[in-house]
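BUG-540 | component: ligand-complex export | severity: low

The export step for adenosine monophosphate jobs runs without errors, but we want the raw record kept on the ticket for reference. Input record follows.
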Amino acid sequence: MLSTMQDDQLSLAHLLQYGARLHANAEVATWTGSGTRKSTFAQVGKRSAQLAHALRSLGVTGDQRVGTFMWNNTEHLECYMAIPAMGAVLHTLNIRLFPEQLVYVANHAEDHVVIVDGSLIPLFAKQLPEMRTVKHVVVANGDPASLEAPSGVTVHSYEELLSSQPETFDWPEIDERSAAAMCYTSGTTGDPKGVLYSHRSIWLHSMQICMSNTMRLSDEDRALVIVPMFHAMSWGMPYAGFMVGASMVLPDPVLQPGPIAEILAAEKPTFAGAVPTIWQGLLQHLDANPQDISHLREVVVGGSAAPPAMMHAFEERYNVPVLHAWGMTETSPMGSVARPPAEATGKEAWEYRYTQGRFPATVKARLVDDDGNEVPWDGESVGELEVKGPWIAGSYYGGADPDKFHDGWLRTGDVGKITPDGYLTLTDRAKDVIKSGGEWVSSVDLENAVMAHPAVAEAAVIGVPDQKWDERPLVAVVVREGQQVTAEELREFLTGKVAKWQLPENWTFVDEIPKTSVGKFDKKRLRSAHADGKLDVTHF
Ligand code: AMP
């Protein structure tokens, strides 16, 4: 029996019109360095219509790809809205990709137009001649004359293109299963792989972002969107914001702790999201330059494991709860969020909050061992996490890397355990696991334990070859500014906190842990630095 319900399509064209009309006065504030320039959802709606007309005038039809090479700002938000709403596909180009990868993804996606922030022209211009399908470049927030176009490419000014266009657009009917946006994985091996989000997947994901078991985004919020809009759709915050009327503060190019602290003081956001390295940096800054940030009702941390010491520091020193979450580009990205069950209090609640979180109803999860057998959710058995659901990728664009998918499940490459009540704890990336004398050592556990030392700013753990045990952990440590600590002291600090046989005997002190294009520890580079003998290792 078929239902009698309407088969109304979940389209971003509707989301745009809805937000612009029913949350017309919700604000979009873009940081200028000393204050903000302000817009509203109503204005974003009008300018999105103008942008859609402008893109049509450049020949964008059907599901053509329009790339963005931009910071987090109002114009990028307009692209987020207008491009999918007109039926085209938004391709957020990661400005930190290696040049050859950037060229690869623009060619692979066959971008027809790329919208570029003026300040990023020097970075973009070098690669543009190799982007075979790009016919138009639109410069936002800058001078188009500063971009020398190769033959066959026309350069335009974003503002000039929009200025003469009508403020309404006849948004098309869109099949909710068609692609709305694409993002390439930031993987450190092989070519980047394209994930194509649908109107439906973005819509459902946005609803989940607002629910009480996840971010609780609402019209009472002013969300500081630090996660780059070129990384995993900025964790879905722009679309979720439009759904509920949450105002947004967009930091433009700012990712440094000092300027973020300035934005916090000036704009008093209630919510923010970023990877742990950003929060660690901010914490150090705040400890040296105290400031009230209790206007933040909560901040979400994901992308890498949130160190428990950092979570406690924000809550106990700054009255800001940290919400830990797990996800991937392939999972839209929200996969699990660590809200403790209502009945858990005190230490028990904290234990839940340290985990990568509980799966929402739409994300199905299982753990699989090396032989492909499912392992139980007993909070102890470890396996590779596999997920499925309406906002989880079922394949990559063009069918790349088919081994990542089987029987309708995505192999995440993350290794961990799940409690009977559905809380995930990740112990490692599959490619980062350390096997010592046949036993697994969790690099995440060791990192968290070392980062709990007050003199440690950052710590990353990798496995290094060992004659006796095959592999042993090596800890790379960044010491906080103005502090001092020795490897002996850190080893002593870990005693009693981790199993004795796991106590690392290899330590190195570095100025900085190498980071990936989205600000995570780049263990591949750390491993090759070690293999090339570039690390000065203290060995016990
Ligand atoms: P990306 O697609 O670049 O966002 O990377 C996704 C990967 O980041 C996941 O597969 C995990 O390995 C890692 N990751 C994301 N969130 C967390 C978290 N909360 N804890 C540990 N690792 C995480």
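Assignee comment: Attached the raw record above. Residues 92 and 240 are 17 Å apart (CA to CA).
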